[in-house]
Amino acid sequence: MKKNSKRNNNLRVSGIEMNSVNAEKEKHESQNNFVELLPLEVTLEIFSQLDIQSLCRASVTCRSWNYAIRNSDSLWKPHCLTVRTVCQREIDNDLESGYSWRVILLRNYQKSKVKHEWLSGRYSNICSPFSLPEKIMCPMDADTWGEILEAELER
């Protein structure tokens, strides 16, 4: 009976040691996480130096980074405005609808990519709707299709 009692004490002591090791590890990780240590303005200034791909990668690093990046319109707005061929009217409509800059970027990035490829002549060889690459096509407004048609007619 004493052996069982002794074994239970060792487990409990071992459990306490494990809890203190985990707490120490979490404390160490928290000390290395600048997002939790620095003022939000400084954190956002650091993240604002990243390109869009790096910003997306940073957002999946940990919860605190994801929260800071995901909820900061100031990080997404410059990227959204510099994406090529995004129509200002589409951005304005999305802003009026209450979308965040991150969501506006997500909504318009694929559209802008397709539009740019159309305007650069990548799809000039398409002669029927059956020839369209389905996976990369997305709905576009009449003005965008008008720009594409004008570019095709000029070619």
TrEMBL record:
Q: Which superkingdom?
A: Eukaryota
Q: Which SMART domains match?
A: FBOX (SM00256)
One Pfam entry for this protein is F-box-like
The main place the protein resides is cytoplasm
Q: Where does it live in the cell?
A: Cytoplasm
What is the protein's known function? Substrate recognition component of a SCF (SKP1-CUL1-F-box protein) E3 ubiquitin-protein ligase complex which mediates the ubiquitination and subsequent proteasomal degradation of target proteins and plays a role in several biological processes such as cell cycle, cell proliferation, or maintenance of chromosome stability. Ubiquitinates mTORC1-bound TTI1 and TELO2 when they are phosphorylated by CK2 following growth factor deprivation, leading to their degradation. In contrast, does not mediate ubiquitination of TTI1 and TELO2 when they are part of the mTORC2 complex.
Q: What is this protein called?
A: F-box only protein
